[in-house]
Design a protein that fits this description.
It is a single chain. The protein is an alpha/beta fold and 378 residues long. Helices cover 49% and strands 12% of the residues. It has helices at residues 2-12, 16-23, 38-43, 71-74, 76-86, 103-118, 138-159, 165-190, 198-207, 213-225, 249-254, 283-293, 303-316, 331-346, 364-376, and strands at residues 28-31, 47-50, 95-99, 126-130, 236-242, 259-265, 321-327, 351-357. Strand 5, helix 11 and strand 6 (259-265) form a beta-alpha-beta unit. The protein is globular.
């Protein structure tokens, strides 16, 4: 399918569209995590590019700036992103927004600020720190609102003009269409039988963060239009929970075991698009409300909201089993896992806990054997 081939190309060549945008005179805003309002960036006429790592690169050390025991050397996917920044893989970025997310992400801000001051030879973008609180309390919502308004103001300073409500409404319409189309993709995955492999879904979802949204929407429409010709997938229906998955390694192994990943609770998967923006409200308020009330990630308090969201997502997908895959040293994700496993057990859903996983899977056969035994027992 030609549309999927193009989407797949952008998933694997993640800087392709952004570099072309830059070549044509545009400016690129890099960002981490899924709690940065890309609608503000789009409305500013800038290219939003979510940064990701590369498990096949130097993922364990971030060059000479990582010390043994440092948070960056411990969390492989964050170390990989820092390494890529320092070694020029993201040298085309004009700006970089670093949100207050997991500790290893928000500490990147002070690390890069210090390097900008001490390492003049490094080509680093202009940095912006986006603070926010990690609860759904009313007081946190007020605080976060001011932080997102400050981000909007910073974007306006970067482009030298106001982001109008008209431009913001247009951006919201584009991202809402993206969310709607990705929800249609999710429906094909949870159909019985499933029609889309988890490996394919991750590439389609991921490519939406690496290329112009309008172009992605057009290609995804073409893909969905041909859904009637997609092959039926048999085997165990699995739900995946755990550390951020910015690559295909785990899904490729799982789906080689006569199983299909029908859904996941992951910021690189379904959680990225499952809450649209209210088009009937004031556009600025609507964007802020969406990011205040979007699907909770592992940094959110209270823990119960994470457990409830994860369980509900799995039940809605009619998963027959769940696999928890937690990276080594990913303490924030490991913290919630026991409560989630307990909730699944109480609802009769078997779980496999893969803990201390490396960012680069170096023993795929051993992992495959473990997963095959789990799938056969479902």
């Amino acid at each position: 399918m030609a549309a999927f081939d193009e989407l797949q190309k952008h998933y694997h060549q993640r800087d392709l569209a952004a570099r072309q945008w830059k070549k044509e005179g545009g400016k690129v805003v890099g960002y981490f995590c899924d709690n940065v309002p890309e609608e503000f960036i789009l409305a500013a006429g800038l290219f939003p590019l979510r940064l990701s790592g590369d498990p096949w690169g130097d993922a364990e050390r971030a060059g000479p700036y990582s010390e043994q025991g440092n948070v960056f050397s411990r969390e492989g996917f964050v170390a990989s992103m820092l390494h890529m920044i320092l070694n020029g893989k993201y040298d085309f970025l004009d700006y970089l927004i670093i949100p207050h997310a997991r500790d290893s992400i928000h500490r990147l801000y002070t690390t890069l600020i210090n390097l900008k001051e001490t390492e003049s030879a490094l080509k680093l973008p202009e940095l912006y720190y986006l603070d926010n609180l990690h609860t759904n309390f009313y007081s946190a919502g007020i605080y976060n609102r001011d932080r997102w308004l400050a981000l909007k103001k910073q974007l306006e300073e970067w482009i030298g003009k106001e982001i109008t409500n008209e431009r913001l409404s247009q951006a919201i319409a584009v991202t809402n269409e993206s969310k709607r189309l990705l929800k249609e993709l999710a429906d094909l995955r949870v159909a019985d039988p499933s029609l889309v492999a988890g490996v394919d879904a991750l590439q389609i979802i991921g490519s939406s963060m690496f290329m112009p949204k309008k172009e992605h929407n057009k290609l995804l429409k073409e893909y969905l239009a041909g859904a009637g010709h997609l092959p039926v997938r048999n085997g165990a229906r699995l739900f995946i929970e755990g550390s951020p998955l910015d690559n295909l390694q785990l899904y490729e192994i799982i789906e080689s075991c006569r199983a299909t990943v029908v859904a996941e609770d992951n910021c690189w998967g379904n959680r990225n698009f499952d809450v649209p923006i209210d088009m009937s409200a004031d556009p600025v308020d609507a964007v802020i409300d969406r990011y205040n009330n979007k699907a909770p990630c592992s940094r959110m308090y209270p823990l119960s909201c994470r457990v409830e969201y994860c369980l509900r997502s799995a039940l809605e997908s009619e998963a027959q089993g769940v696999i928890f895959s937690i990276y080594r040293f990913d303490e924030i994700q490991a913290w919630e896992t026991p409560d989630e496993i307990k909730a699944f057990k109480e609802n009769g859903i078997p779980a496999l806990y893969l803990k201390d996983q490396p960012y680069l899977i170096t023993e795929p056969e051993a992992l495959k054997t473990n997963i095959e035994e789990f799938v056969q027992g479902i």
